[in-house]
C-alpha cells in the first residue's frame, strides 16, 4: 500500500509538473501527512522526530540548488515526501538515481538541440561570474524560454522506481 500510494503521488506530481511547471502543495502535504502517520506507527511518538529529520535532509542538501534556480521547490518537496514516507535508505537511492536520470535526460536534450558548446559557454560564464563576485548567483535563464528545462519530477519518479527495485 505504501509503495502504491507513493507511486500515485509521484505520478500525479509529474502530471502537474508537465502541465504547469508546478507541483501542488496540497499533493505534497498529503504525502507528508501520510509519511508522518507511518513514522508514528513504526516508532511511536519518536516517529515525529524521525519524520522531521527525514523530510529536512533534502531541504538542507538542495537549498543552494534552489537558490540558483537549478532545482525547483516542488522537486525538493517531493524528495522530502519520499524521505518522510520511506526513510533515509529509499531517499538516498532515489536521490542518486534521480540525479543520474536527470543527467541522462539533460545530455539527451543537449544532443537533440545540438548545443553542447553554447551550454558549456553559458556554464563557464556563470562560474566565472560566481568566482569573480564571490556570491552565489542565479543561473541564467535561456532566451528560448523553457527549451532547456527538464521536468525533474520525471527523474524523481524514475529514481523512486529504481529505489523500489533495489530495496525490495
Overview of the structural elements:
With 168 residues, this protein is an all-alpha fold. Helices cover 80% and strands 0% of the residues. The chain is built from 7 helices and no strands. The longest helix is centred in the middle third of the chain and has 26 residues, at 88-113. The model has no long low-confidence stretch (mean pLDDT 94).
What is the element layout, followed by pairings?
Elements (H helix, E strand, L loop, with lengths): L1 H19 L4 H19 L2 H22 L5 H14 L1 H26 L2 H18 L18 H16 L1
Q: Spans with pLDDT under 50 lasting ≥5 residues?
A: none
Q: What Rg, in angstroms, do the CA atoms define? A: 17 Å
- Structural category: mainly alpha
Largest sheet: none
Overall pLDDT, averaged?
94
Pattern of helices and strands: HHHHHHH
> Number of helical runs?
7
Q: Compute the separation of the termini in Å.
A: 14 Å
Task: Give the amount of beta strand, in percent.
Answer: under 5%
Shape: globular
Query: What is the tally of beta strands?
Result: 0
Query: Roughly how much helix do the residues carry, as a percent range?
Result: over 70%
